[in-house]
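Report of the visiting student (M.T.), summer placement. My assignment was to run the structure pipeline on a short list of targets and document each run. The first record concerns Xylobiose transport system substrate-binding protein.
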Amino acid sequence: MRIRTLRLLAATAACAVATTTLAACGSGGPSRGGGDTLSVWVYQDGSTVIQEEFVEKFNETSDIKIDLVQIPGDNYTDRMRTAMGSPNAPDVFFNWGGGSIADFVEQDMLVDLTPILDEEPELKDAFIPTILDAGAVDGRYYGIPMRGVQPVILFYNKTAFAEAGVEPPATWDDMLHVIDVFLDRDTVPAVVAGADPWTELMWLEYLLDRRGGAEIFDRIRNGDASAWSDPAVRWMADTVKELVDAGTFGNNFRSVNYTADGASTFFAQGGGVMHLMGSWEYANQLSQQPEFAAEDLGWAAFPTVPDGTGDPGALVGNPTNYWSINSEVEGERLDAALDFLRMHAEPEYAQALIDNGDIPTTANAESLLDSHASPEFARFQYDMVAEAPSFTLSWDQALPPGKAPALHDNIEKLFGGQMSPEDFVAAMQDL
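After the run finished, the structure tokens were exported:
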């Protein structure tokens, strides 16, 4: 499922390796490339076909060949983190940028790409600035975008909204009105998969961003725990409690999952009329509920909030995924690795992403969007990303490794009523 490409799920699964996967079970992995090869590790999913295609193109002309290693999603993070720093480490590897690689940066395990981007402005300018910046660590670049953008979007049921005489909410007062209207119609206003707390996180991320601006979480991500005591954080937690107490998410949302299509199916079948989710939800609905996707599915930006100082065009979610280079790679092999990364700035790569249903991260891709399977949705998504003043990476991916389980636990308790807003703020400060 596409969701697994960009969500950093804290799961340890048994090794189930497909025939195309070169990685083996165990704590290590395939030996790193040497001599005339580069070992490139990628998260194995439906989008890997693009990486296969471009590795083949690269190998046709390069003296240094790429050995593409595909690792099943459930195992990818653990395998990659175990391998880094060992003789089995990859030369180039797929990651989420930000906090997912911060400890590697601290240990000088990655090539700093900042000087190269400074020397090659055409390469740097090829990418949407907020996307490139979202993967940076302490203002330095250690990754090149290599997949599509996936912001969090407010999806809604156009037919249900029209029948109720309401529009998608542009302000928080609009949102409260919409909630009241559908509660009066005995309809769940907003679907949330409470069994998977990362879906609840999306509400927190946008509420904080709209209320206090992206800089609050920037401080948190950079190690300033005192930012959790900002009044906007408390307002965010209080607002979530008010939404839950009002019945916004229904009475049984804690038993609804996302990874097994529970929330998406509930939404498509009319059980709820709004769904705050990553842009991959469109592809999920198109695949699983094509009639609903074609006739009923609408999309909008998250609304503004009262007394908010955040930019209404700011985004949260998954800017993209990145390729990073192991600092042990040198000489001709480093030159080859850089050449491989440069391929991802080319229009040909952007077109391949579009053909696969993705939205490219390159700044010049607008002219290609008409070839997307859903041009209207593609343009909406591309425009909101290209115009966004900031794009905050999902908190559970932006924070240092190991923090996500506690973060998810606190979120689950806040939404479930086992933790008060005040206690949630205190628990996040301790985190």
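Residues 1-29 have pLDDT under 50 and may be disordered. Residues 150-316+401-430 form a domain with the D-Maltodextrin-Binding Protein; domain 2 fold (CATH 3.40.190.10). I thank the supervising group for their guidance throughout the placement.
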